[in-house]
Amino acid sequence: MSPKKKVLVGMSGGVDSTVTTLLLKEEGYEVEGLYMKLHSKPGYHEIHQARAQKAADFVGIKLHVLDLQEKFNKNVFQPFIDTYAEGKTPNPCALCNRTMKFGEMIQFADQIGADYLATGHYIKTDGEFFYQAEDDTKDQSYFLFYVNKEILPRLKFPLGERKKSDIKRLAASIKGLESFASQAESSEICFVETTYTDVLKDHVQVDQVGEVLDTQGNVVGEHKGYMHYTIGKRRGFTVKGAHDPHFVTKIIPEKNQIIVGKREDLACNEVVIDNLNMFHDEKEFDTTVKLRYRTKAVKCHVKIEDDKAHIKLEEGVFGVAVGQAAVFYDDDKLIGGGWIIDA
Ligand SMILES: Nc1ncnc2c1ncn2[C@@H]1O[C@H](COP(=O)(O)OP(=O)(O)OP(=O)(O)O)[C@@H](O)[C@H]1O
């Protein structure tokens, strides 16, 4: 009989990675777990590492622990702060997936001689491409567009074909795992407990009152500090004598100014992205693109030149923010993406 294939599972202490571990063990793999200490939120790791250990003990596998707080700070957290300070909107999860979850973790998989790396992400892969998850309310493919494509043949996502509600139900039905089923869902950005500005406040001057301009450049009001705003935001600033809602259309960090306009001023028809991560080699193609998480993909024409992709959208899209990811999909197949530098 050939020796069992070994899988390393990223274990966060949550229900998804716990069930992932269980499913792989049941499939007959030799499974080991890894808990990574990523951010430095006080008190966080004590709780989550203990939960990951409880899960590993239940399943009967070894749990490794790595302290990667310095690397996380350099690769994910500091860029998050810098991007807001530059008046842009960051996507820390996509950076974390490339550098930490599918960067550091695959290196660790090599160290322990694991054939595969698995996580509890809701996404599918055939080893060549990523595909949207079966459960479209949980699909996380948008955040994995920047993962190095060379490692795809070594990735396993047992939850990609399943529904979150079934995963919870399964955990709830297993004696010893009930508490995992009833844990609160983790927040969208793991190191943001309340608001992102609360996190920024410890590192940069967020609350600096500044001018609100209209699209002609006239000063029309006041705001609380440009980092409080993302493109498309419509509250938290004043516009003298305004009757209609106004939306942030541009952020000018060097002058601490924001420009506001009507909804139609927000419409964006062309986007430029750089730092591409493409899963096919075509340089010009028609496809669809998602310009932020939880929005529908819109039809577009793409031309890649000088390591940048120029995207012409078939319909105007509202609230496109520099710093966010643009991710291309052919139906449910993710074919690549990049980072928005102009919109
Ligand atoms: N600190 C960590 N150490 C190791 N792996 C992790 C860690 N955080 C997340 N992962 C892996 O990445 C997957 C997706 O992470 P995400 O933060 O989206 O988790 P989630 O949806 O809350 O899942 P879970 O229920 O497993 O916590 C997890 O299921 C897990 O496999």
Automatic annotation (TrEMBL):
Group of enzyme by EC: transferase
Presence of the UniProt keyword RNA-binding in the record: yes
GO molecular function: ATP binding; tRNA binding; tRNA-uridine 2-sulfurtransferase activity
Stretch list, region Interaction with tRNA: 138-140, 292-293
Protein origin, superkingdom: Bacteria
Binding site for ATP: 10-17, 36, 120
Record's keyword terms, sorted: ATP-binding, Cytoplasm, Disulfide bond, Nucleotide-binding, RNA-binding, Transferase, tRNA processing, tRNA-binding
GO biological process: tRNA wobble position uridine thiolation
Main location: cytoplasm
Pfam family, one: tRNA_Me_trans
EC number(s) per entry: 2.8.1.13
Ranges where the tRNA-specific 2-thiouridylase MnmA-like C-terminal domain occurs: 273-340
Catalytic activity: S-sulfanyl-L-cysteinyl-[protein] + uridine(34) in tRNA + AH2 + ATP = 2-thiouridine(34) in tRNA + L-cysteinyl-[protein] + A + AMP + diphosphate + H(+)
InterPro entries, per database record: MnmA-like, MnmA-like_C, MnmA-like_central, MnmA-like_central_sf, Rossmann-like_a/b/a_fold
Cellular component, GO annotation: cytoplasm
Protein location: Cytoplasm
Function: Catalyzes the 2-thiolation of uridine at the wobble position (U34) of tRNA, leading to the formation of s(2)U34.
Family from the record: Belongs to the MnmA/TRMU family.
Protein known as: tRNA-specific 2-thiouridylase MnmA
Organism of origin: Sulfurimonas paralvinellae
